[in-house]
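Interim report, section 4.2 (structural modelling).
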Amino acid sequence: MESRVSRYLPYLAFGLLALFPLTESTFYMQLLTKVLIMAIFAMSLDLLVGYTGLVSFGHAAYFGLAGYALALMSPGYDAVSLWWTLPAAVAVCALFALFTGMLVLRTRGIYFIMVTLAFAQMLFFVFHDTKLGGGSDGAYIYVKPSMKLGDFELANLEKPAQFYWLALFLMAATYLLLHRVLGSSFGRALLGIKVNEHRMRALGFPVFRYQLASFTLAGSLAGIAGYLAAMQYGFVNPEILSWHQSGAVLMMVILGGMGTLYGAAIGSFAFIVLQEVLSNQAWFGAWAKHWQLAMGILIMLVALYLPQGLAGLAQKFRGKPAPEAADE
Amino acid sequence: MSDKPQTVSGEPILRTQGLTKRFGGLVAVSDVSLDLHVGEVHVVIGPNGAGKTTLTNLLSGDLPPTSGRVMFGGRDIAGSSADQISRMGIGRSYQKTNIFLPFTVFENARLAAQSRTPHALKVFSRAADFAEINRRADAALEAAGLTHRAQRVAATLSHGEQRQLEIAMCLATQPRVLLLDEPLAGMGPHESQRMVELIKSLTADHAIMLIEHDMDAVFALAHRLTVMVNGEVLESGTPAEVRSSPAVQLAYLGGEELLHD
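Predicted structure of the assembly:
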């Protein structure tokens, strides 16, 4: 049984995060916005890696595709409406994930890693080598999308605090959606597939369909993150769907702990904060340029000594085994 | 013996005709024809490498046959996928224990029971809320004698209990046909006895194909007996018929001890 405390902990966290703009620190608010966006991205990947047993090394494809979708849908200096561009960007990602999923899910293990990477690289070169999205220079999103209800402006996303709240809202919604999905019969079946795919098939589960549904949902949620990221920077270039990006989000999931949603969120927080700290020239001087070296060592240490990630660390202190099993 | 199993007459629920599986040049299963009836245990024996497990794999859809037919419910199901065959009502257990080790015993059975609900992907209803599925999981655990272990993590069970869980999961899918691949493998005498009783109790409602090496269990359970050697059926019939077959005595049973009983 989930304890009462841990059931309400996420809501408490969302509540505290919602108060953060009161500090009026724009720098940290924007940094935290980035964390929230990457948390959506990392949770979507955790659905695959931690709950379905599919290690994708091309998850940035869906992230980047949504960013490009927003850039292509807002070419001018007029704000486009979020009400249709967000669903449209997510729908594009869902369709692309459905299509690629039908192909990549015929492979397993190392081949799955390679084929997902290959699809992401194909998309990278489509945007890199064609004029579609401005080639290697990328494209600008001059004005952030609007959120209007009739004439009433629900939120002005040019304001950092309001953009922050939107990111927080979507992050909380993603968390609650995935939490619900993973607690359902469908989620239990995914865990079963992760643990013993062969036996699931022998029990009569159409494994491919479950995996495809999971893959499509993961791609769609990555699209929400990519849409927000493109909006935050006001700019997209092929780097957002490169394998570096796929690797970074995978590291966030590993850092936080695979198979726990909040672990993915903690991992994105840790990753981005570490990146900020380690690349701080005032503190690390010439070494700051080589922050990836220090990050790599840290990730290795986590993989060696904390196989359950930072989430596992929290559980260690509470003296509880990690919830690998689906009992609650 | 008083409780000697009696054969059942009538239409078989499952019938293979000329079932063959080739791996390159090797013929693992060659032209096998056998019948399974509800109410009967059909035991398949044979030395290692005789093709018994391959035969099970052909029936369960884990492997597609090279040729031949598997007639079930009036149609040829040869070549259907494992999940399709499972949903048709043919369940199997594995020689090598094949369960969800990190899950609780109950969750193992519950997942098996869940597989019988329509696949409308009930994404938003909590898994624990389905009373009917939970009831079926409980019933399967009870039948297999594992109720007292329901909340244990499957990996912590004894070998014998894990074998029982194999059967429980199979039962939770409510099959008509049970394919049991060496359910007694590695069990102590006490556990074996329980398993034999369990299989006996399932016979009335199921058609069972049992692969087994334990001769005591074989003769306690078998209504029909098929002896396989090198992928082929050497002999098939009632235990008495098979026992008195000179070919079987020569090739496999090889002992005077089987002549008297």
